[in-house]
Design a protein that fits this description.
The chain is an alpha/beta fold and 521 residues long. It has helices spanning 8-11, 19-37, 43-54, 60-67, 72-78, 86-110, 113-119, 135-138, 154-162, 196-201, 215-218, 255-265, 282-290, 310-324, 352-371, 373-405, 412-421, 428-433, 447-455, 475-498; strands at 143-147, 182-187, 192-195, 221-226, 235-238, 268-273, 298-302, 335-338, 468-469, 473-474. α16 packs antiparallel against α20 (475-498).
Length: 521
Amino acid sequence: MVTTQQSPLATQPLCCMPLDLLWMVYIVTEAIRVLLAVNMKGLVSVCCFVSVLALATPEEEEVLDSILRDRSHIEETLRLAAEESSGDYAAALLRLRKIYHNSIRPMEHAYKYNELRQHEISAYPGRTLGDSATDGEITSKPMVLFLGPWSVGKSSMINYLLGLQDTPYQLYTGAEPTTSEFTVIMHGEKIRSVEGIVMAADSSRSFSPLEKFGQNFLEKLIGIEMPHKLLERVTFVDTPGIIENRKQQERGYPFNDVCQWFIDRADLIFVVFDPTKLDVGLELEMLFRQLKGRESQIRIILNKADSLATQDLMRVYGALFWSLAPLINVTEPPRVYVSSFWPYDYAPNTSRELFKREEVSLLEDLNQVIENRLENKIAFIRQHGIRVRIHGLLVDRYVQTFKEKMSFFSDPELVFKEIIDDPDKFYIFKSILAKTNVSKFDLPNRDAYRDFFGINPVTSFKQLSAQCSYMGGCLLDKIEKAITEDLPGLLSSINSSKNPILSSCEATGCGEKPKNRYRRN
């Protein structure tokens, strides 16, 4: 009779096992649960996990480490070990805040630009400041937003990037819809969770405008603070998965409106899919409508790619583009990353080298957003200033036309109704195009002004010529100076200090004459 040798782990009761072995057993058990949940992903990998429990040698931890994926490339690509010159960054942000408060915000308040935004759905696609642009919004870190169907690996991807797997504070993951809240992962001195009502009440944060979505939503908003090098430079936002068979009203809050708020403030948007969830329903279609104007920030991720053979993966890749083609109306297709973003090693007999290169490429994309966060912030504030200036010029033109058409016997309501119903008859928008630095593509939707003046009477506004003071100057002059001189000057000073080309020998070598690479030897 053949006898088998039992593992020491099998002969010891749990109460007598060392703590490190108990922790290892817990890790392996959880890993097996995840593997079995994700479409029976790699039964060979499951067998490898089970074999760890049967080992009788002290090499158990080494085997477990070989199953986990190496994360050194994440720190190298994102340059987490490099120290930042926080003094220069803080000084530039201080100058940016000063320019905004002194030059842009006065016109924004005088002509109630933020109320125009509330009535304007598609006039200005893209990023915008909140209803009241606080210092927290201006100085906030870049935001990376994760969107997509349920259980495609959004939370697992965040756990992987931050190294949170197998820790008490990792984001919960599973094969069923697990994330029902908007989770904001941000930097903090210690690990703690922050309730949504606290985040909205704190004016130093950039989330105070979220109060307008109601208390039901704030109960579905949670923040997690933790000390992490990556979170010092970026903020992650995990969203509830899209479930097509559930009506939006059942969520208890305006889901699409909340998504739009985060989309407008995101610097990078990851839309995640997996091979089993490629169909497009009404909620996902609405989400892509909200992403119009943000194509440069969108990155499509086909996750769990190692669960398929190469030939099947090619078919799934084509099916994904076929499903998304009607939703993305741009000439250049979006960037699609194909890999498996979780802490465990790729399944055997898959394109692991391709997946590794795709992952590094995504990390470089993320690092580019982090490196250029200050430049993007300045460009964003300048874009906002251009829109505020155009709004001020349009309101000024409406006021001027109204005063010209009014007479002693005229009815003010009928006169302004004629102007607002047919602005082209009075050259409202055409006169603005004659101004310098105004493009017809930057003009807002004229129908938005019908609602805007329905709440704000035209008689409550002054003309721009009357918005001047001896000490403060004119509102129009200050905002134009900020757009044409102050903000571009701030951007140039940052670029010059960031790229000291003239003082470096890296390009040609010290004392060497630059070579003409187009000249034949």
